């Protein structure tokens, strides 16, 4: 089974194919080859993260409205650890680390429950980008939410108020031969 066949959500599968189409002589593709406006239907769900290897931190460079609605803050220019507080930050940070430091495409389907909110089923895709073909400089991501989100602020949550059910996670080395 090809990696794209494991991606249940059609929009995320389209993003994965778009990312593959940007392959140049080196892989993964560079950030400069990605133009989020080429995928207008996904823009509200997309984000671009800058990877700081020295500090092992992640900074939002682009975040669509649905992404900002999920975390209830404006994300552009914020570091992940500034934008989200524990335990939500650690939950997001794990996938970012896998994609950036292990150089893997990361797809996850989960159910997330935050106290005071309905359960949220979501699918998220993280795609590495590299300007030199070796070091991951940015992550292109998209999150598709299924379910309502109310107005409670997730940064006020205590650790025991988060429940995550790992429905499916797939990873693929970004440098493997692609079909």
Can you characterise this structure?
It is a single chain. This protein has 179 residues and is of the alpha+beta class. Helix content is 23%, strand content 31%. It has five helices and six strands; from the N terminus they run H-H-E-E-H-H-H-E-E-E-E. The chain has helices at 3-6, 10-21, 65-71, 80-83, 88-101, and strands spanning 46-52, 57-63, 104-114, 120-129, 138-146, 162-173. Strands 2-1-5-4-3-6 form a six-stranded antiparallel sheet, with helices on both faces. A hairpin with a 5-residue loop joins strand 3 (104-114) and strand 4 (120-129). The longest helix has 14 residues, at 88-101. The radius of gyration is 16 Å and the shape is globular. The chain starts with a helix and ends in a 6-residue tail after the last strand. The relative contact order is 0.21.
Annotate the secondary structure layout.
Elements: H1 3-6, H2 10-21, E1 46-52, E2 57-63, H3 65-71, H4 80-83, H5 88-101, E3 104-114, E4 120-129, E5 138-146, E6 162-173
Antiparallel strand pairs: 1-2, 1-5, 3-4, 3-6, 4-5
